[in-house]
Amino acid sequence: MYTDRNFKSKKEFKEAVAGGYKVGVYQPNDMFGTNGGIKNVGEETCCCEGPHYPEPHKWYASVTLKDGIVVKVK
Q1: For residue 35, what are the contacts with CB-CB under 8 A and spacing of at least 6?
Q2: Alpha carbon distance 71, 74 (integer Å)
Q3: pTM of this prediction?
Q4: pLDDT tens readout for residues 29-40
Q5: Total domain count for the chain?
Q6: In principle, which of 7, 36, 53, 61 could form an S-S bond with 27, CB 3.0–4.6 Å?
Q7: CA–CA dist 74, 13 (Å, integer)
């Protein structure tokens, strides 16, 4: 999964979430329109990576989503 903003580092991502920025997630090339299984309802977890392709991924994070918005980054 990617975040809706192309964070260059996990630190930058964590600071944005802690600062109240509403970060969403999406699954690129989602052929079936399932957004990688994210329902955008309730609370769930997923994994994110960045920066976005075609740059090589330099960070990975386990995140908690509430109604499709990242509320916690591990």
Answers
A1: 25, 26, 27
A2: 10
A3: 0.86
A4: 776 677 777 777
A5: 1
A6: 36
A7: 11
Domain extent, residue 21, equals 2-73
The tens digit of pLDDT for each residue in 1-17 reads 999 999 999 999 999 99
If phi over 0 gives left and psi between -120 and 50 gives alpha, with beta otherwise, what is residue 52? beta
What is the helix (H) or strand (E) element at residue 30, kind and residue range?
A: none
With tokens 């989602």, the residue in question is: 30
Yes or no: say if 7 and 24 are a contact pair by the CB < 8 Å rule. no
Residue 12 in 3-state DSSP?
A: helix
Give residue-wise pLDDT tens across range 51-62.
999 999 999 999
